[in-house]
Amino acid sequence: MKSLSFPQIFEQEPDVTGDAAKEIEETFGFPYTTSAQNENGQDIQGIPWHALNRSREHYRRERIQSYTNFENEVPDRSELQHLSKEITPCEPVSRLYKFKLNTRSLNPSHTHLQLRYMVWATSSHDVYVMCQHFVNTNYEYEIVHWDAKTHRCQQICDLSAGMFSTSDHDTLRVCSMVVKEGIMLLGGQIGELVCMNIQTGTFYYNQQISTSENNITNSIDLYQSYTGALRVVTSNNDCIVRIFNLPNFEELSSFQFPAAVNHTSPSPDGRLFCVAGDMKPVYLLDSRTGKKFATLNGHLDYSFSCSWHPDGLLVATGNQDKTC
Q1: What DSSP string describes 27-65?
Q2: Rounded to whole angstroms, what are the CA distances from 82 to 4, 72, 98, 300?
Q3: For residue 174, what are the contacts with CB-CB under 8 A and spacing of at least 6?
Q4: d(CA 187, CA 191)
Q5: pLDDT at 111 over 50
Q6: Are 272 and 287 in contact (CB under 8 A)?
Q7: Distance between CA atoms of 139 and 162, rounded to whole angstroms?
Q8: CA torsion, ordered 188, 197, 307, 299, to nearest 10 deg
Q9: Helix (H) or strand (E) holding 146
Q10: Apex 111 CA angle, 12 and 239, nearest 5
Q11: How many CB atoms lie within 10 A of CB 163?
């Protein structure tokens, strides 16, 4: 695997030479930054800001000011004025997390601009992530397990090994991923759904669930239904949400929507789905029948993420219009 290089941190490589360039090279040749090093003044990513004559805060401020979000639906002036009145700016009120460790020994990656659910933590130290590395002039991808206690990395699945019967190519181009209950689920660029036991390496399922022209498996989730049984729910670009049982992967039901579905989040009790996609409304529906329970309006563009509060009473949505 290739270590992270300094220019990848910036949109443009800064103009540095001499001692500053040497310090940058030495810093990024070292694969970790610890909490102790950070308390002694080292940047959490190991970036030597003093050699660049700028601070992390200054760079973050510049980046936020220059950031432009990707837009599918361009809102008109009246919509923007209305939205600006409704928005409550998000201000940091506390530190929810304490910095522990940054590793640069991995090279996390994604294959789609808008689909980035490619990191899963199943415990306080077990992390599963899709990485890329450069081999013989080509990028190759793999799913790895990284242990934050031992700092050891183990390949779980080689996505370039030609083991996926659903693909016309050797590489499964993963667009969605979930790791729960000892199971890894992968969704592909051409409608693939792959299920693997991460302990034994056994594949339970490896098929295309959609064969339409534009059939990306945008998101997957593994959840416990209201009956207590484990279920898999998928969201595809063919505008369909599908529910499968385990371990046979029989399709139990499917629900059609007016546009591509980007994300489906089951409620904690498994009774409701929150469904977001290439449409301004977000829908709440009965997970068993597909009957719409509520329509959530207010966004001006497409939504790509939604998530329930553990109490099942609140749900959050993330949209390209930069609002939640």
Answers
A1: HHHS-EEEHHHHHTT--TT---HHHHTS-HHHHHHHHHH
A2: 42, 19, 37, 11
A3: 111, 118, 130, 141, 143, 159, 186, 187, 188, 189
A4: 7
A5: yes
A6: yes
A7: 14
A8: 0
A9: strand 138-147
A10: 130
A11: 14
Least confident residue range of 151-165, 226-240, 253-267, 285-299: 151-165
User: Cα(119)–Cα(104) distance, rounded to whole angstroms?
Assistant: 15
pLDDT band for 255, please (50, 70, 90 cuts). Answer: very high
The count of C-alpha atoms lying within 13 angstroms of the C-alpha of 247, restricted to the half-sphere facing its C-beta, is: 10
Q: How far is CA 66 from CA 58, 63, 301, 322, in A?
A: 12, 5, 20, 14
pLDDT per position as a tens digit, 269-300: 999 999 999 999 999 999 999 999 999 998 88
Contacts of residue 150, Cβ cutoff 8 Å, sequence gap at least 6:
none
Distance, CA of 172 to CA of 189 (rounded, Å): 8
Q: What is the pLDDT of residues 22-34, one digit of tens each?
A: 554 455 456 788 8
pTM as predicted: 0.81
Range in 147-151, 196-200, 247-251, 313-317 with the lowest mean pLDDT: 147-151
CB atoms within 10 A of CB 29: 11
Q: Which long-range contacts (CB under 8 A, 24 or more apart) does 47-52 make?
A: 47/6, 47/9, 48/20, 48/23, 48/24, 51/16, 51/19, 51/20, 51/23, 51/24, 52/14, 52/16, 52/20
What is the spatial distance between Cα 267 and Cα 226, in angstroms, rounded to a whole number?
10
Q: What is the rounded CA–CA span in Å between residue 198 and residue 275? A: 28
Tokens matching residue 99: 């910095």
Stronger pLDDT, 287 or 65, i.e. the higher one: 287
Give which of 50, 41, 64, 59 is closest to 16, Cα–Cα: 50
